[in-house]
Design a protein that fits this description.
- Helix content is 45%, strand content 21%.
- The chain is an alpha+beta fold.
- The chain has a single domain, classed as Glutaredoxin (3-Layer(aba) Sandwich).
- It has a four-stranded mixed beta sheet, with helices on both faces.
- The radius of gyration is 12 Å and the shape is globular.
- The chain starts with a strand and ends with a helix.
Length: 85
């Protein structure tokens, strides 16, 4: 299974939803980068993704986007293939 990394914060409900969706797909490990605990990581996230909001999710080297993007990918049937890559 591909590595999953997520920029997140402790109070973000969409981060929780993203984690639940990924877990339901069999993901057992998510590397979380907490931008609320490490403010310099927010700058890193913005430079990498061009976005300001969390979650920002990477599966392998692919930037999926936020929770809405992840859910849309799952509905379209592309999430399983990306996780298997």
């Amino acid at each position: 299974m591909a590595a999953v990394m997520m920029y997140a914060s402790g109070t973000c409900p969409y981060c929780t939803l993203a984690e639940r969706l990924l877990t339901s797909k069999g993901v057992t490990e998510i590397t979380k980068i907490r931008i609320d605990l490490e403010p310099e990581k927010r700058r890193e996230m913005m430079a990498r993704t061009g976005r300001r909001t969390v979650p920002q999710i990477y599966i392998g080297d692919t930037h999926v986007g936020g929770y809405d993007d992840l859910a849309a990918l799952a509905r379209a049937g592309g999430l399983d293939a990306l996780l298997r890559a």
